[in-house]
Design a protein that fits this description.
A hairpin with a 2-residue loop joins strand 1 and strand 2. This protein has a two-stranded antiparallel ribbon. Strands 3-4 form a two-stranded parallel sheet. A two-stranded antiparallel ribbon has the order 5-6. About 60% of the residues lie in helices and about 5% in strands. By secondary structure, the chain is mainly alpha-helical. The protein is built from 19 helices and six strands. It has three domains: about 100 residues, Fumarase C, Chain B, domain 1, CATH 1.10.275.10; about 240 residues, Fumarase/aspartase (Central domain) (Fumarase C, Chain A, domain 2), CATH 1.20.200.10; about 70 residues, Ribonucleotide Reductase Protein R1, domain 1. Bound molecules: arginine.
Amino acid sequence: MKLWTGRFSRETDKTAGDFNSSIATDSRMFREDIDASVAHASMLAACGIITKEDGEAITRELKTLKAQFESGELAVDPDCEDIHTFIEAQLTERLGDAGKRVHTARSRNDQVAADIRLYLKKESAAVSEKLNALIGVVDSRAAQYAGTVMPGYTHLQRAQPVTFGAHLSAYSQMFRRDSGRLADAVKRMDFCPLGSGALAGTTYPVDREMTAAYLGFSGVVSNTLDAVSDRDFCMELAAVLSIIMVHLSRFCEEIVLWCSWEFGFIELDDAFATGSSIMPQKKNPDIAELVRGKTGRVFGDLTALLTVMKGLPLAYNKDMQEDKDAIFDAFDTVKMCLDAFTPMLATMKAREKNMLAAASGGFINATDCADYLVSKGLPFRDAYKATGELVAVCIGLGLTLETLPLEEYKKACPLFDEGVYEAVKLENCLKKRGLIPPRSKP
Ligand code: ARG
């Protein structure tokens, strides 16, 4: 079923018709398509472009259609070209001529542009809610582990002591920025394209502001060619979603490392880990790995959108029908990942003893040892060198900066005295940096 028969003398080839159809993808926008049609028909009637009676009949029937969809009483016909065609066909079947009037002063080009925006506004709100839930969990886990000492890393080499709470809080900052980016992208797409027609506007005395207000948009897209050819919001949202996935993926990478025997920093709850079909000892972080893996899908969606749009002349081109598969998949994937990740994080446990042991073993207080010499008046570069030599001595003797005898310290630099042992204590290293003081030993 299609809307554009008059000019053609032959039926569309079946394969070509199937290829052209988008109903399998766009039928998920049926609510938005109906809402946009209700707004459009109400505006047409208010402006005297269709009669009040036709306007009322159309809006009443559209609302019935929506209810029948929701209850499962009405199923989308997969032989229709797209969801817009299906809904208009239903209206016409039920109302006759009034149904045929709904497409006055409208094109599927401005219609689909409105539908996607309405749909993606809702999807963005859903992601925003899930992000907020995640931020809440990250913050509460960070507060719980505010005093848990762990090694901080650069180059994945032990660098300086931090707390697990501070490490987790870094992710909270990333997710907060994601949330801001999402809200910002939504603000930019919150304009209504309806009234732009196919590309050049319409000859009818439409009230575009009225339609936009009815649908809850903050305004109208001013240029009609732009209104039907712009998919910046899809690309922008896919970019925002990709960055969310980067953050989730980095977090997951750390979780995978932390729950290895080599690190042993965390234990995943059994409900968020999996076993092996052959190795009985295994407890695998599949959820974290899969979130990391699904990051590739979302980057793929962004790349697809950018590539589809890059060579398109103005205004609408059928290539743009590909936008929906990509952006819907990106939203589906991110929502699924957030749903799996958040409870996994909420239930994982830190193995604080192991973190402390790792923090105590890698000379992560060496900078503090050098700073101690600086406090005695030595220039930092000389203090750095003397400390480096001491680390080598420790490695040779199988000792740490905490256990190295004072005479060895003095050999490296006569400015050392007993005070150095206080300076290299992990808890003092943390205190001096303003990281929350550790609680009593775990
Ligand atoms: N299914 C189409 C899409 O998603 C709807 C717009 C069709 N417009 C057209 N001129 N063929 O882009």
